[in-house]
Every structure is written in structure tokens, then in C-alpha cells.
TrEMBL record:
It is an enzyme of class 2 (transferase). Belongs to the UbiX/PAD1 family. It catalyses: dimethylallyl phosphate + FMNH2 = prenylated FMNH2 + phosphate. The lineage of its organism: Bacteria, Bacillati, Bacillota, Clostridia, Eubacteriales. The keyword Transcription does not apply. Its EC number is 2.5.1.129. SUPFAM superfamilies: Homo-oligomeric flavin-containing Cys decarboxylases, HFCD. The keyword Ribonucleoprotein does not apply. Dimethylallyl phosphate binds at residues 161, 177. GO terms for molecular function: carboxy-lyase activity; flavin prenyltransferase activity. Flavin prenyltransferase that catalyzes the synthesis of the prenylated FMN cofactor (prenyl-FMN) for 4-hydroxy-3-polyprenylbenzoic acid decarboxylase UbiD. The prenyltransferase is metal-independent and links a dimethylallyl moiety from dimethylallyl monophosphate (DMAP) to the flavin N5 and C6 atoms of FMN. FMN binds at residues 20-22, 46, 96-99, 131. It comes from the Bacteria. The gene is ubiX. This is Flavin prenyltransferase UbiX.
Length: 194
């Protein structure tokens, strides 16, 4: 585990899980925005997530985790595995259908899925950002199961009403919607009617 930077607010950590679905730029941007808001991300990344980060962004885990508290996914005894860890909530971005299925069915077999299970158990916000298309019936039923358990499902579906001009604008829209669900203020996109 890496040391936490003292500039971060220690009272409101968010757990961020990154899995092997395509969409690593969303995760990178979320971490940037959280750190800029003085919220220290407690980060856990699946093995497939590490691969996708490298392939889609060119970042190493060291570069990605700078300024975060990093956990090994196989360390099921990591601090974020306990309900006594004072997390505000957890965001899984991007969230693979494998992880959706595991969390929807309570299969807490690694630190990422255990942290998600604990987040639901403690009644804290769990925000999942699936990045898959098309969804099959199994995917949809698992997403419904998560929603019934209290998770917020925020698919990585950018909008166009705010007049995006570059890819970063599309990424920022999705991250803004995630932050809305987390109750974190942002100015990442122009809101409808404003």
C-alpha cells in the first residue's frame, strides 16, 4: 500500500475500483478530478484492469496510482475490505460484466468485489460504470440486481447537448454524471438549460 499524501482530506476517502472493461480513460480522469478536489482515492485495480490501462492509456500502475492509496486486489484483508474503514463510498469505473455479476451475486472473492460488497452492506453509495455494448439478458439482469441492492448504475454514455468539441469533453460528461451521483461538485460540463 502506498502512503497517503497529506494534502488530501482524510475524512472523505472514496474507494475507486478499476476493472478490465474498455474505458480506462474514464478511470484516469476520475482519479485526476478526485485528487484535484482534495479527495484521496483508495484504489484497487484488477489484473485485467491493469492490462486495459496500459493498452488504452500507456500509463504504468505507478503513474496511475500517484497520489492514491493503492491496494493489491488479492489482499482480501486490505483496509477497504472492512465496514469499519471510513469510506464515503465506492466507484467502479469502468466496470466489467464479470465484476457486475460478482457483486450482484455477492461473490466477494477478491479485494475489489469485497470492498463493493461491504459498501452495499454498510449502506454507502456504490456507483458502477459499465462499459459494454450491447447488453445481453444476463448483463441486464445483473445490473438490475445491483440497482435493487442500492447501487447506482451510470453507464458510460456521453451526451451531446453540451456541444462537445473533443474526446475529453465526452469523457468529462460521463465523469460529471458519476460525480453527480457521488454528491461531489464539479464544472465538467454545461448543464441543460444553464
Amino acid at each position: 500500500m502506498m502512503m497517503q499524501n497529506s494534502k488530501f482530506n482524510k475524512q472523505n476517502p472514496w474507494i475507486v475500483g478499476i476493472t478490465g472493461a474498455s474505458g480506462a480513460p474514464y478511470a484516469v480522469r476520475l482519479l485526476e478530478v478526485l485528487k484535484a478536489a482534495a479527495i484521496c482515492p483508495h484504489l484497487v485495480v484488477s489484473a485485467a484492469g491493469e492490462r486495459v490501462i496500459a493498452e488504452e492509456t500507456g500509463l504504468t500502475m505507478g503513474q496511475l496510482a500517484e497520489g492514491c492509496v493503492l491496494y493489491d486486489q488479492q489482499d482480501v484483508g486490505g483496509a477497504i475490505a472492512s465496514g469499519s474503514f471510513p469510506a464515503t463510498g465506492m466507484i467502479i469505473i469502468p466496470c466489467s460484466m464479470h465484476t457486475v455479476a460478482a457483486v450482484a451475486h455477492g461473490l466477494a472473492d477478491n479485494l475489489l468485489t469485497r470492498a463493493a460488497d461491504v459498501t452495499l452492506k454498510e449502506g454507502r453509495p456504490l456507483i458502477v460504470v459499465p462499459r459494454e455494448t450491447p447488453f445481453n439478458l444476463i448483463h441486464l439482469e445483473n445490473l438490475v440486481g445491483l440497482a435493487r441492492a442500492g447501487a447506482r448504475v451510470v453507464p458510460a454514455m456521453p451526451a451531446f447537448y453540451h456541444g462537445p468539441e473533443k474526446m475529453q469533453d465526452l469523457i468529462d460528461f460521463v465523469i460529471g454524471k458519476v460525480l453527480d451521483q457521488a454528491g461531489i461538485d464539479h464544472q465538467l460540463f454545461r448543464r441543460w438549460g444553464l
